[in-house]
Amino acid sequence: MRSKPTTTSCHPVSAKPATLTITRASPRGRTVELYLDDEFARTTSMGVVRDLSLTDGDQFTLAGLNGAIDESELRAALDRAFRILGYHERSVSQMRKALRDDGYAQGSIERTIARLLELELLDDTRFASAYVRTKSCAGWGRRRVSQGLSHAGVSDEIADAALDAESPAEGQRDRARLLVRSFDSADPKARDRAIRRLVTRGFTWDDARAVVLESGSTDADDQ
Fold first, then answer.
1. What angle do helix axes 124-137 and 156-166 make, rounded to 10 degrees?
2. Is the pLDDT reported for residue 221 higher than 80?
3. Same domain, 55 and 129
4. Which of 11, 40, 179, 181 has its CA 20 to 30 A from that of 87?
């Protein structure tokens, strides 16, 4: 890949073959920009470049380049999506963002998403349930888990259903009790630190305070 051409005008209109130049849109990104005779043609993903074995100096007309890329993008995007899902489950929104960040065109992304949904490889309900279980086991409270689901693009309806099923509100104090470590219950600063630790984990202030005070009372009774 050569350095980025200085000319960045609109698509070339000539039907004659032109020389291809491939540049990365960012030093570490997967998005690439394609130029024909130093005229900007389009962006795509490194996955497409590899799929088509494109190299600097190849000869294309604009129509020929676009046709080849349009045909390759869905194949390359699906392959990329399968690799992403091989690490862990993703929400629909997360997958859409990952493919967009990789440089795939919006049309190719939506066709890929549709195919993944058809294959049941993407399912926000399943993702939300797994996410709540995993994060709850890691000691997260409902509030923090809810924020994570929102950040992943899961709808409020699906998120609320998963939280109610996997981490019900009435069980939050029991979960918080498992996280309260021994502390000097007679020291107000120690109590405050324990409360803040639980709040940071995503438990409500009321639940955190109740659990810490209860723990302190239990310690005093034991003595």
1. 40
2. no
3. no
4. 179
